[in-house]
Amino acid sequence: MMITQYAIVVTGMPCSGKTSVARYLHKSLAVPMASKDMFKELLFDTLGWRDRAWSIRLDVPSVALLFNFLNTHLEIGQCCMIDHWFDSLSDEGHLVAMQKELRFTVIQILCHAPGPILFSRFTARAISGSRHPGHCDEFTYDEHKNLLMSGGVEPLSTEGPLIKIDTSDFDQVYFEDIAAHVARLLHLS
User: What is the mean pLDDT of residues 149-168?
Assistant: First the structure.
């Protein structure tokens, strides 16, 4: 059986530009998109938010909703895209198992930048208050500093093309070229 279904998976560490890349691709390719943060913020708005422990607790249902989105689209043969930092081996394992079961190709887009840049962006984002307050970003510097400073994240162990994007300087990220490359992989052009 030939694999004809595709899932675009935009991944990378926090503040690596995943959401910017995913939003651009969503609009330019007209592909349905979801992210863990999208679902998590809906849960914050529905159930409320209070502290970091509550935010962490909502990670589990948010990821479950993300995988449900992916599964629902792929079951009917519709290409879709998810934006998610696979910080959990169980999340990656779930994706790999899903790929084997539903027989789809993952087009992985891995966003990366050096650690000091990631941590600087994280700090600026927390100070700006630009994200939903339920994330409690202002309380997570110590939790994320060492991780972000390492700067590294390995590609997921999925089958399919890997596109690595250095997001150190967003002025040097050619979104149109990335979209054209993905469109070719999806046989849209």
Answer: 92
